[in-house]
Amino acid sequence: MALVQSNDLVVYEALKIRNLVKNRKLAKSISDASWYQFTEWLNYFAKIYRIVCIAVPPHFTTQDCSVCSTRVQKSLSTRTHQCPNCKTVLDRDHNAAINILKKRFSAVLGFPPRPR
Fold first, then answer.
1. Is 116 a residue whose pLDDT tops 50?
2. Whether residue 65 sits in one domain with residue 108
3. 82: Cβ contacts below 8 Å, ≥ 6 apart
4. 65-97 burial string, b = 16+ CB within 10 Å, else e?
5. Residue 63 lies in domain
6. Residues 44 and 1 in one domain
7. What digits encode the pLDDT tens for the residues 12-43?
8. What DSSP string describes 65-100?
9. Which of 22, 40, 56 is the last residue of a domain?
10. Do 63 and 112 lie in a common domain?
């Protein structure tokens, strides 16, 4: 509830839990996190408090560079995004968060944001 109340906009990845739990190494952690239940509550409280809550497709949010859109392949254990094209260095999650916010434009307006 505090997450929703303290923001004007909430944007999150519409993850396919069924596909994620196919990975034997991560299945228990993903199930323990209760992502589905979290998103249900998130949407419920957003509706109550009239906060915009948008789910965006999760495709390549951690791999695409948030500055130049170059796709940088990395393993799950790689925690730093380092773009060879524009030399941007960010925490992997910070890079993904920027990409998720950018994707909200295409989810709401129906077209991708302009590149910088």
1. no
2. yes
3. 72, 88, 89
4. bbbebeebeeeeeeeebebeeeebebebeebbb
5. 59-116
6. yes
7. 988 877 776 677 777 777 666 677 888 999 99
8. -TTT--B----TT--EEE-TTT--EEEHHHHHHHHH
9. 56
10. yes
